[in-house]
Amino acid sequence: MSPRLLLCAVLAVYQGTPTCTGFNVDERFPVIKEGKTKGSFFGFSVALHQQTGGSKKYLLLAGAPKEKAQSLQNVNETGAVYSCPLTTVSNDCTRMDLVTSPSEMVEGMWLGVTVASQRDQPGGRVLACGHRYVKIIQGGTEEQRRMIGKCYVRSNDLTYDPNDDWQTYSYEVCNPSFDLELEGMCNMGISGGMTDTDVYIGATGSYVWQGNVHVTWRDPDPLNAWDSIGKDFGQLKKRYSYMGYSVLEEKKLLTHDDYTVVTGSPRDESKGSVVFGTKNDKGIESVLTIRGEQVGSYFGSSLAVTDLNNDDWNDLIVGAPFYFDRMNDHGGAVYIFMNENGSFQKNATVVLKGPSASGFGFAVAAIGDINQDGFQDFAVGAPFHDSGKVYIWMGSKQGVSERPSQVIEGKTVGNNGFRTFGYSISGGMDMDDNTYPDILIGSLDDRIALARPVIHLTKDFVVMPKIVDPNQCPGNTPCITVTLCMSFTLSNGNKDFKKNISKQEPVRDKLEPVVFFLNISLHEPKPKSRRSFQNLDFFPVLSQEQKLTQRTEINFQKECGSDNKCSSNLKLRAQFVDSDKKPQGKFQVLQFNSNMRIVELMVNVTNIPSAGKVAEDAHQAMLNITIPEALRYSGVRSTVRPLEVSASLICELGNPLKANENVSLSLKFETSGINLYTQEIESQLLLSTVSEQFDLKPVPVGLLIENTILPSFSIENALVQTNFGGTVMGESAMVNTSDVGSLVEFTFNVNMRGQPLGDLGTLAVEFEWPFEVANGKWLLYLTKVVVAGESETECRPPEPVINMLNLTLSGSGPRRTKRQIVGDDQNTVVVHVCSVGVHRVLKECSKGTARCVKFRCPLLNMTDSAKIYVRSRLWNSTMLEDYSNAEVMVKGEATLKLITDKPTIRMDSQTTTFKVEIKPVEGVETPYELPLWIIISAAVAGIVLLGIIILILWKCGFFQRASRREMYEAKAQKAEMKIQPSETERLTEDY
């Protein structure tokens, strides 16, 4: 469904008046006509119609395309066309009898989408169309439906005449035998109208929504009216152009005597176009195309032609309701193309633009000469602006002005019931025989207005004297005389009018003249409500073709020379200063921090003559200072509520600031608006005076901001005391961090004391941690660092400094078995010590007695404050081995630093020292591990002793081997000994 099928239901008729600017159409006596069914879109299309046959009268025609069906079986909604008489009764409209055959597919046909009257013809007929009419054809065994649309023509009295060939002709001009590739979905009737010989109808769906226009010609001779010829544009291979969305046929466009078909294609090449066509033997030939300028503007969705400059050629008016200009807040446009002796330029002569989202140009219509000045006028609808508006433009010899002569708002007409006033417009016909054409306006609601007579008057307006000295007018003494004389054609009012005027003290503007304005208006009584039409002769209006205002002036006497003009020479110097009022060049660099509350601006203004320039009085000398967003003017205080100070500060320097004078100002501003993102503050200072001086320009005064943040950095427990004792445990035997030694924990606090850094940088704490003594043994073994800000996270530096042995954190690992404990104890030696003769030892990296590792923990999740928990373990074995009889003091450092790449933000680093005081536990078994040198010495001594033993044995011949003879003798002796019986054997043998 196209966008124009969505709005309107109710109409209004307005009568033109013979006035020009202000109120060409009377709004006080509207004739309201309402539809029968809510939601029927009554007023979607409208037309003015004169019934000349039978009962002569003027009728208002209104389409209601969503109206319920009338007396048709199994049909719910067909649409309808209503005719309304010119009365003050709102519900006296009559439905035209159009749809009579239930065999047709008339459900949802949108009858009334187009309504037109055959204007300026005796016995002019009426055209009504429904573009969604469906034709049913039989294609074999299947039923085929083609949405081709249908139109009806009825007599001047809105009845059906079977003897009239105009009416008996079936206006179903699209061939339903083809599919949408041709005209099987042509939607004929979405627009249309009639001339004295033609019925022209738009069909947007032809040829895959290329669109088309069908013109049916009939012989003007009633005896030959049966003879008809149909013509159209044919297939132009421009799919989805929507040709025929709007259409009209008029003379005096390209030629004086021949009709020219003009149709809108609002989707042609996405920008829309208007096509001019001339009829020939083959059909309608496209001879001129005017294209739109903006994609999606729907250029060509509405059309009108009329002679705006009275040159006997019709000019073209094109609506583009969806045009938009976001920068200038425009929505909708109307293009005026002036006819140049039968030709049109590609570019519009005038482009009228409406307010944003108003639908300005949704409807355009020629409305005749409503002010009777000899030039045709036109109306533009903007149905979506507030309650809807209709803009009236007047034609003239120069064409069309950019401003409308009148704007009619829906909410000001009738009982304020309009919502889309101006959706459809018809005009150009005098409906009440007062010689002024009237306007019919459609909407979702109602309305009408009538013309009024004109008053012509003459006037004379004089003010004396021309120059007055304000010092010569004390108190209420009159010193200025104003004379007004006028005559007019209607009844005289009060002829004797006198008014005394006195000056107000003090007189501020002595340079500019005192201006007197004469404004003429007419008292308009409120009319009484009545059922019949009001006699507009009782409600005259002033002719606005005459000047209704007049201006004259007098001057004050000044000390500015013989020409009575003052030429000043104001000069300005200004600079921001620090607390000591010391400027630092053109741009002062402000070292800003949260403790700074006030900044000052020093200004000096002079009015001193210079080379080639005089310095006369500077009247109303003012200094305008734009206050930067980051500063607040501190010269005003309120004890009740905070004051809203505007972005500008105006200082009066003198009235006048005389020659050779200078003025110095000191302005104080609060810095409450400066934040970390503020890099520069600039204020514009502009001098002004009503005296003549043309070289006054804004003077910029700037201040560069270098932010210094002042966070606090502290440690809750700067000194931690702990003890050591027990047994020495080797590094390889340790599993949990508790095996290392006693817990040493520090808590560091960081408070931002100001705006969070955000993405401008990050605070970080850099530690210098004493993790080893000078000989490389462990000292303070880091186990975990936690940063707690908005959330709690662990600090994990890129270098391996935390839990380097990957020990299980105490409380989180598996318990050790007894076998593991016994095995570990085999590597330790228990030493019993007693802390006698304790001496003090200092372990500090800067003194070389300890080795430190540096690592950094960024405070990534910090906004206002953060805590850093540093957990470590004292290496118990190192203390037992090397410092069993000593008290050890360990020192380390933590520094808060700023990490940023922004040169305008800085911070002084803050360093704090933390200490660990370590003492042995007295009278306990102290594990002692043998020194390595003892083990090595014992091994060497054992080797030497073994060598000596071997040497002695060698000297004794222990290692010498026996000879072969001695070996045999020894073996024989052993054999002999073996065969000798023992004493036991002998005794046994005896028993």
Automatic annotation (TrEMBL):
GO BP: cell adhesion mediated by integrin; cell-cell adhesion; cell-matrix adhesion; fin morphogenesis; heart contraction; integrin-mediated signaling pathway; leukocyte migration; positive regulation of cardiac muscle cell proliferation
Matches recorded under InterPro entries: FG-GAP (IPR013517), Int_alpha_beta-p (IPR013519), Integrin_alpha (IPR000413), Integrin_alpha_C_CS (IPR018184), Integrin_alpha_Ig-like_1 (IPR013649), Integrin_alpha_Ig-like_2 (IPR048285), Integrin_alpha_Ig-like_3 (IPR048286), Integrin_alpha_N (IPR028994)
Protein's cellular compartments: Membrane
Top-level taxonomic group: Eukaryota
Key word tRNA processing present: no
UniProt topology in membrane: Single-pass type I membrane protein
Domain Integrin alpha first immunoglubulin-like, chain residue ranges per copy: 504-559
PROSITE patterns per UniProt: FG_GAP, INTEGRIN_ALPHA
Segments passing through the bilayer: 930-954
Coiled-coil residues: none
Residues of the Integrin alpha third immunoglobulin-like domain: 717-919
Family in the record: Belongs to the integrin alpha chain family.
Name of the molecule in the record: Integrin, alpha 3b
Organism, as annotated: Seriola dumerili (Greater amberjack)
Taxonomic path: Eukaryota, Metazoa, Chordata, Craniata, Vertebrata
